[in-house]
Every structure is written in C-alpha cells, then in structure tokens.
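Aim 2 progress update. The chain analyzed this quarter is reproduced below.
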Amino acid sequence: MSALQELQQALQTVSDQLEQTQRHLATSRTALHQAESALRGVDPDNPETVVPPGLHRADDQIGHTLSTVEQVADSIEQFAAGL
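Predicted structure tokens:
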C-alpha cells in the first residue's frame, strides 16, 4: 500500500469516527431535551424550580461541540478530496 493510500485510509477512519460522534451528540441532545420536558412536567406552572440551570448550559455545550465536529469533518473531507 502506498503512503497516499495509507493516508486516505486513515482519513476515512477519522471521517467515520467523526460521523459516529455526530450521531452520538445528536442522540445526547435529544435525550437532554426529553429529560427537560419530563422535568417541566413535574411542575408545569413553575418549571424553573425543577429544571436545573446547568441543563441549558449542557445543551449549549453539546450544540457547540456538534458544530465544531462538523467543521472538523468538513475540513477533513476537503483535505481528502484534494489528495
């Protein structure tokens, strides 16, 4: 196997892992939203008393991480296409 083929294979492995990471993050975000909905159901009139403030920060962090992973995946794809 040539060095170029090895590089392409390595980049494909990275791309596959990034795609899996994106799926996990999306699943986590969905679960977080479901948890928030369930918590709001405990006290619909005063959800702020049952929904921890950190829950919103966690959602923001997942969103930021997802965006970063997407940018890295795009960069890897562009690099691989240029080989």
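The mean pLDDT is 95. The longest helix spans residues 3-42. These observations will guide the mutagenesis experiments scheduled for the next reporting period.
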